[in-house]
Amino acid sequence: MEPASNITITALCQQVLVGLSRTTILFIVSSGLSLVLGVLRIPNIFHGSLYMIGAFLTYSIATYFGGGSVGFWVALILAPAGVALLSLALERGVFSRLYDREHLMLLLFTFAMALVLGDLVKLIWGSDYRSLAAPMILQGSFLVMGLPFPRYSLFLLIVGPVVAFGLWFLTNKTKIGKISRAAAVDMEMVGAVGINVSWVFASVFVIGCFLAGLGGALVAPTQNISQGMGHNIIIEAFLIVIMGGLGNIWGALLGAAIFGLTDSVGILVWPQYAIVFPYLSVVVVLLFRPKGLLKSVW
């Protein structure tokens, strides 16, 4: 039960790299949640279920196309798109009728949808675990300071900043991003100038859910795909959104990095209590920065 005492700089650097690769998944999922929560003011609890569906869809699509490299790359495109289509159907069919309801009702509805989607996954894929291999080009590892580092983790380290920049560009430099930010501040005024606020909300919701599906697709080759895999990620995503600052893309990235690194380094320093370190980091941050690390932009 004692903390590790033979930690080397090499081992620490390797764990930092592992933590940064996990940061990518956490950031992609939490940034989608932050987008929905910031604009629509909806605490979307079934965001984690969409992440799970994204992982299962990735497995099914990759298997359908032969399970090789081609199957994975096709699934990486189609699985998040499938999650986005499902979210569009849910938003147009149900959510668009509930925006004027109390937040408690919306919270209960998203919780109920998480249960429904969980049962839907069980009905379609069963309760067995699934596994998916990374494409051939991303299999294996290379040496970093004399220790092996997975190629797929390097791929995730590249994807994270690309998604972060893409989201920043979307929210700050495009018309839909600027309208979304305006709608989050004053929905009535945006509607008064002739903009269909309902479809603005739908677009933001679909983009946020697409990111949940993308996170599930990217995580599929790194762990078993199973029912319930969305439970932990939704808790972590909410904490990261709060820690980073509501609606702040770079805050979500910073929060995800802190969460991922404390988890990874905690495994090296004190494995028995590694699960505590990320949550302790959230407590410490919020003690000194109750409104989050960076300014809320919504």
Account of the protein in words:
The protein has 298 residues and is mostly helical. The protein has one domain (21-288). Helices cover 71% and strands 3% of the residues. The protein is built from eleven helices and two strands. A two-stranded antiparallel ribbon has the order 1-2. The longest helix has 32 residues, at 9-40. The termini are far apart.
Alpha-carbon distance between the two ends: 45 Å
The general outline is globular
Overall residue-averaged pLDDT value: 87
Total strands: 2
Topology as H/E string? Answer: HHHHEEHHHHHHH
Instruction: Provide the β-strand percentage band.
Output: under 5%
Q: Enumerate the spans where pLDDT stays under 50 for 5 or more consecutive residues.
A: none
Rounded radius of gyration (Å)? 19 Å
Helix content: over 70%
Oligomer: single chain
Structural class: mainly alpha
How many discrete structural domains? Answer: 1
Biggest sheet character: 2 strands, antiparallel
The strand line-up of the biggest sheet is 1-2
Number of helices: 11
